[in-house]
Amino acid sequence: MLTTKPFSFIRNYKIGTYSLLIFLFFTTISLIGYYTIINEQRDFKLKQLDIVGSLTYQDFRKIIYHNIHSLEGLRDRIVESDGRFQDYIKSDSERIIKQNQSIKFVFFVDSTGIINFVTPLEANRKALNLDISKLIYRYPGWLANSKDTLTNITPWLDLTQSGKAFLVDVPVYYNNTFQGTVSAGMDFKSQFDNISSKQNIFSVLIKDETGKTFYSYNTPNRADFNEKQIFERKLKPFADRVNGAWKFEFMYNSKSELYATPLQNIILALSIFGSLLIGLLGYFFLLGKSQIKKDKLINHKLNALNEELKLERQRAEDASMAKTQFLSHMSHEIRTPLSAILSISEILEGKKLLASEKEFLKLMQNSSRTLLNLVNNILHIDKIESGKMELSEEVFNPFITLKQILEIYSQAAKMKGLEVHSNFNEIKKSKVVTGDVSRTEQIFTNLISNAVKFTNAGFIKVFYEEKEVAGQLYINFDVTDTGIGIDPSQKEAIFERFKQLDFGITKKHQGSGLGLAITKMLIDFMQGNIKVESKLGKGTTFKVSLQFPIVAKEDRIENNRKYRSLSHLNVLIVDDNMLNCRILEKILSKKNIKPDIAKDGDAALLECLSRQYDLIFMDVHMPGRDGFEIVQYLRKIGNKAIILGFSADATREAVERGIKSGMNDYLTKPIEQETLFTILGRYFL
C-alpha cells in the first residue's frame, strides 16, 4: 500500500489540474462574453447619443429660428406698410404669441429708448413706459445693433416686471429713419421640454454666451462624464453670425447608462460561480472515477484484505457526502474574504481619495454587501431546507418588538418623503410570550423594509392586533404600502427564491430576491400564515398570522433574572456608523442600559475626559484616529473602563492588536446578542 501513495498524489494532482483548467476555461469565456457585450453596448449607446443629440440639436435650433423669424415677420409688415401696420401691432402681437409658445410678451421700444407698447399688459405693466436708456446693461447693445440693422438677442436676463427671459430686438426702419425696435421676451423651456421628454433617458444643458445656464432637463451632472461621452455643439441664435453662440450639451441622464447593469453584473457573478461548480463537479467526477478504478484494482489484487476494502468504501461514502455539503461549506468560506474586502473599504474611507476613487470604493462596498447578503440568505435557506434550523425559546413582547423595528425604518421612510401610520396608540396592553424572537424580528423587518424599499410616494401603514385563546396568543400583523404593487399573476411568484417581478423592478431596486422567500419559509416553519393583497401601481398589503404560548408569571421572573438591569453602568458606544450604534443600543436596552454615543475617536476622548465610564464599545476603523490609537491613549492616561473592541475585521492580527492596545475583549460584527450578554456577565454580573 505504501508504494501506491506517490501514484495517488500524482493522480490527485492531475485531477486538480484538470478541474482548475475547466474552471479557468469557463471563467475566461464568461469574462470575454461579459466585456464584449459591455463594450458593444457602450459603443452602441455612444452612437445613439450622437444621433439623438444631433436630432435634438436641430429641433432646438429650428424652434429658436422660428420664434425669431415670427418676430421679424411683424417688423416686415410694419416696414412694408411705411408704419401704417403699426396700428395693428396689438392684434398681430397677440396672434404670434398664441402661435409661438416661446414668445411670452411683445413690446415696442421707440427710437429714444422708451417702451410705449407691451402685450399682454397686466403681467408686464411695470415694463410699460420704461426708459431703457438708463439701463447700462441693456441700452448700449440695443442701440449698437439697431444702428447696424441687426436683430439682437440679449443674454439670459432678470426682467423688470419679474421672471427671466431672452430679449430679442428687431430694428424697424422706414422713411429712411430708425423708428425703434419690435422686441419680445422669449423663454424656450416649454418647447424644449416637449422635445426632451421624448428622450427621457438623456439630459440636456444649455448655457448662453456668458456661461449662464438657462435650460436643463433631467438635472444633468456633467462632472460624471468625460468629453467623449457628451454630445456638444455651439447653438447659434443667428446662423450668419460668429459671436453670441450658446453652448449645447447632450448626455445620458446617468453615467450608469454607459456601463453594465446590475443584472449583467449578477449574471457575470453567477457565471463565474457556475464555472466554479462545473470545475468542482469535474473534480469530484474524476476523483470518483479514479476511486472506482482504485477500488477495482484493490479488489482484484487484495481480496484477502477485507478491512482495507471497508476503509476505502467508507472514504468513497465520505466523498459522496462531501458533495452534498459543498455548497453550504463554500458559502461560509466565501464570507471570509468578503469581510476582509468590507474592512479594507472602511479603512480607505478615511483616506484622501479622488472623486472617481471614492465612487469606485462605494461601488466595491455596495457590491460586497450585496454578495454577502446573498450568501447569508442562501445559507439561511439551506439551513431551513436541511432541517438544521431550530426555533429558540425566549421571552419577549411581539408588540414592543414590532414597534421598535418600525421606529428604525421610519427614518428611512421619512427621508423618502413617506408618511408612516400605525394603530399602536390604540393598543393599551400587550402580552409577553415565549418564542424565537430573532426569527420574529426577521419576519417583521423583511416586510417593513420591503414596503419602504418599493414605495416612492404615499404612505406605509402597519396594523397589529392580538387575541388570547386557551393560553395561546394569536397575533395578526399587516403591512400596507402605496408602492408599485404586484400583478395578480405574480402573487405566488414573489415567494420564490431569486425571484423578482419582471416589469422593471430589477432595474430600479437592488436585492437578491430571497427576502420574501425566507419570510415565507420562516412563517411556515413557525406554523403561521401569510397572505398578500395587491393592485398593480396601487400598493400592496401583506397579512401575517402567528401564534405563541403566553408566558406564565414564573417564566417572566426567570426572564428578568436572565436580563436583570445593568442601568447603573455608564456606557459609551464609539462608532461612525449610526446604524451600528442603533442596533447595539437596542440590544443594550434589554439590560436597561442607556449608552452615550460618540461618532469618532476625537469625540470619544472628549466624552471620556468629561465623564467616568464603566464600559466602552470601541469601533476599530474610524475616520481620523482609529480605535487602537484611542484605546492606547485612554490606557496611558489611566482609564480603567472595560473596553470591548468591535469590528468586521476578524483577522487574528486585528484581534491580537486590539488586546495588545489595551482592549479587554474583541467582538466581530454583527454582534450576537447572547454572545454579548455572556461577555457582559463575565465582567459585571
TrEMBL record:
Stretches assigned to the CHASE domain: 114-197
Record domain Histidine kinase: where: 329-550
Reactions catalysed, as given in the entry: ATP + protein L-histidine = ADP + protein N-phospho-L-histidine
Membrane-spanning ranges: 15-37, 266-286
GO molecular function: ATP binding
Enzyme Commission designation: 2.7.13.3
Sorted UniProt keywords: ATP-binding, Membrane, Nucleotide-binding, Phosphoprotein, Transmembrane, Transmembrane helix
Any one Pfam family match given in the protein's UniProt record, by short name: Response_reg
4-aspartylphosphate modified-residue sites: D619
Enzyme type, top EC level: transferase
Response regulatory domain residues: 570-684
Record protein name field: histidine kinase
